[in-house]
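Hello, quick one for you while I still have it in my head. A protein chain has come my way and I'm curious about its shape. I'm sending you its amino acid sequence along with the backbone structure tokens. I'd be grateful if you could look everything over and explain what you see. Here's the protein in full, and shout if anything looks odd to you:
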Amino acid sequence: MYRDRTVRGVVVQFDQPYWRPLEIALGADMAGWFMWMHEIRLEDGTRVDAYKHRATRHYLHLAGDGQALAYGADDTYRAVGLAPAIVRAFVGWECSSPPAHHVRALQSAVAAARGVTTKAVSASGGS
């Protein structure tokens, strides 16, 4: 596929949002912090959806298989880790005073993306 390299992508539509990849990555409640912006089609045929965080204005690009991608120059994309992509999308989020249950939900989503159980994260004091 597109791991370890960049691949070109083209925006193909702005009219029909697809929330499933975001809801799987973050949960339906946390998806409410995002706006669906558009669908991208990579040159290998992969669908990627672009979501923009309402407060931070940072993008999270997700393929249907849950792979996160980073946008680069000249309409290129490259695969990145899901946990770091989620964290990047939420940088500055604390300024919007999110409710405590959303903070916990974000911590759980990042832990799940890292493959760590929430209890292990809480016990170790990590995020």
